[in-house]
Amino acid sequence: MGQLDPALAQWALDEARRRGASAAEVQLVSAESIAAGVRLGEVEKLKSSRERRLGMRVFVDQASATASTAEMERDSLEGFIQNTVAMARLTAPDPFSGLPEPKRQARDLPDLELTDSERGIVGADEALGLAREAEKAALGADPRIRNSEGGEFHSGLYSVLFANSNGFAGEYSATSFNLAAAPIAQSDDGRMQLGYWYTAGRHFRMLEDPEAVGKTAAGRALRRLGARKIKTTRAPVVFDPDMASSLLRALAGAASGPSLYKGASFLAGKLGEQIMAVNVTIHDDGRMRAGLGSKPFDGEGLPTNRKGVVEKGILLTYLLDCYSARKLKLEPTGNASRGVGEIPGVSPTNFYLEPGQYTPEQIIRSVKRGLYLTELIGFGVNGVTGDYSRGGGGLWIEDGEPVCPVQEITIAGNLKDMFMSIEMIGNDLKWRSATASPTIKIAEMMIAGE
Amino acid sequence: MADELVKPEQFFLSRFGMNQSALERTLGSALERKADYADLYFEYRSAEGLSLEESIVNHTSKSVSHGVGVRVCAEDRTGYAYSDEVTFDRMRLAAEAARAIADSRGDRPAAVQVGQPVRRHTLYELDSTPLEVPLEERARLLKQIDETARAFDPRIRNVMASFAAERKLVMIVNSDGQIAADIQPLCRLNVSVIAEDGKNRQMGTYGGGGRVEWDYLFEADRWKEFTLRAARQAIINLDAIDAPAGEMIVVLGPGWPGILLHEAIGHGLEGDFNRKGVSAFSNRIGQQVASTICTVVDDGTLPNRRGSLNVDDEGTPTSRTVLIEKGILRGYLQDRLNARLMKVTPTGNGRRESFAHSPMPRMTNTFMLPGESTPDEIIRTVKQGLYAVSFGGGQVDITNGKFVFSASEAYLIEEGQVTRPVKGATLIGNGPDVLTRVSMVGNDLALDSGIGTCGKDGQSVPVGVGLPTIRIDGITVGGTRASAPEGN
Questions:
Q1: Phi-psi bin for A20: left (phi > 0), alpha (psi -120 to 50), beta?
Q2: Separation of alpha carbons B235 and A357, rounded Å
Q3: What is the pLDDT of residues A137-153, one digit of tens each?
Q4: CB A66 to CB B194 under 8 A?
Q5: What number is the ipTM of this complex?
Q6: Are B193 and A262 in contact (CB under 8 A)?
Q7: What residues of B are in contact with residue A266 (Cβ under 8 Å)?
Q8: Among A80, A204, A244, B487, which residue's CB has the most CB atoms within a 10 Å radius?
Q9: Which of the four CATH numbers 3.30.2290.10, 2.60.200.30, 3.30.160.20, 3.50.50.60 does domain A6-222 have?
Q10: How many contacts, defined by CB atoms under 8 Å, are there between A and B?
């Protein structure tokens, strides 16, 4: 976009030093986007935006402070930097804090094809057209589709420039495209069910076509019609790919440095141990071409990488930024994430479970009585203990066949046991978000209903 | 920055070099096509946070953000554009982008004349905000919290405490000529505690705040109460047994368990969902949706509460809206757009996260009015059930009405007595049905301590909830322990 000014970044680092900082980091971010929404064939909303922010972290020896601002003129930045240094002086020194050792900083910054330069930001008319097409396919799929929360298309361009006073400077841009449809099916008794489906990618050509998005969304609404509660029981649970991805997110959270050094993770002390079934292998790959979680360097300027996190069920590594690595006496893993003007956090990059050999149909057929889980609601995952209890819905399976939709039930267990009892893994890994999984089957969970 | 405390609208005009004519020209440009309404939302927010872990205050942060959002409404269409550069040129570009949703029209629209001030409430006129308290003093409180939690029990292994404070200045100018401005202070103290006893590890969390001064945390030793509640929760949960699974009688304690109302009722009564007919509550005004002892209101006018506002984010003064009166569904929560389309009055519930977002109907402080029973009476009536006093988050599927909320501190009730603590479990129910099962309402209405944040369509806003002790005769509890004979 050419809006991020490396000279401004260097000036800010120098200014921090002049104001008494011993070290500093600066982040310049710009974002532009358009979001178009259509409902029942008519334009409902159109939103366009552009934003720029500058974030800093300054150190006075081992004390630090972070700050961010939208005021980018040097005049007002002078006061901003002075205040930030003053705040750092009031903060307690922390022996584990500090910039990464210079030798760890990324040197090669490969082009990961994160930008669709042909498309850039999609224009308003085309964006509305795509949203309209997806919704139309959903509305036309079946006469029981009688209402809609609409179709939506989003296109964005994000650029970040990051530099520190140890000489690191890096920059990258990324585009993203997202198309969704949310039709509502209604049965004759008046009860309604929403169906939702989306497609997303860094390049426009990676998206599913609008008709497929709409039809899938409609199918998902229709198959929920007539859903009922079931009696409380223990049974196997087959997680569809999106539901299985949510388990991977819980794993990544528990494997992240800050939860570990705080003693707030059920994976504390488990490095090198069997934490999942032997058929499970999980990778984190920050350099996947055009990946939704890809970036050439992490939130502290370390190179991203590809690594096995779990191999044959063994936990090989945690996900660490420099601070948590020092606290845990381990090496940082290139997983620092960074909000503008925030301290580094940790997040996985492209995080996925290696596909297995079974088709989703084979997995469902293997279940005599159990649940095919296609939706989850609520936040009932306790990362400290692994206790798991969430609202769910899906299809009830009898003798290997889905027989009726179910809802208003919960599924519960403990992630430690659930991870160890992943019995089957599907071959249906698809990338729609930075964390992805194929279908998986968990041997048994408590399902609460009537 | 003392002047804006008297006249926040002056702040925007002077800081960004705006004048009345720039506002009028921007609104005029926004309305150039066939539109019903346009507004400009100016925001200037400063926020500071500090946090403690492992007994040192090792993080401090500050952020300043500002921007302007331009909205154009034509029938049920909304165009929205924003910029973080508050200049006339940027506003004009935003107005051009936002008006793209409107059809082009023949005649020139009438010129907009700005200048009609909106009367706002005075719910949080503070002498000073916590942002003016020296950082050292704020850090000292976090250290005190750390010491207090650790002294509570030797099994407390780690304490994480944070304090966040912000001040937001907003100005809303609309094509009806109205101008509204407000200064919105907000703060929140949060305490998380990890306890360990060799076999188990548990976390306890509590906190509070509001649109209040720093001293609020010291009145009645509130900070200490928050700390001890977090510590106690972590210690109690060390001995928690598996939660039961299945449908059972549940007694909810007062205060924060009001999240039930937020999820089960509140979202389903937001005007946008009902105008579109996509809510499980659509077209049900006047119908019985709760037992006759239930009256539920949403009230944005409670002084100093986290969910309160002098004017909403469209410049409408907030109000008290009766949602359910003695079991009968009475009203929806409205912003301007949905109120106009449904031909009702806006209720002051048009809210947005920031200038980067278009407003929509949102809750403020949502609670149930007190009943007759004492909490003890209610518990004594239960032979076997669950008593839940603290919750994490919740969520709802508006369309089919199913909602969840997750208990983080709960106990068994056996033979009319609260007995053993049980592990956290998610409760799931059906919004239009769950309040019909309320058989007792306590006389102990409490509002939450000021910790709620509500997410909708990617936008977060601060909210409050409240509840007296209530008895629900059957809701599904998602534990792991079979409490009834198995089988399907």
A1: left
A2: 45
A3: 999 999 999 999 999 99
A4: no
A5: 0.93
A6: no
A7: 201
A8: A244
A9: 3.30.2290.10
A10: 264
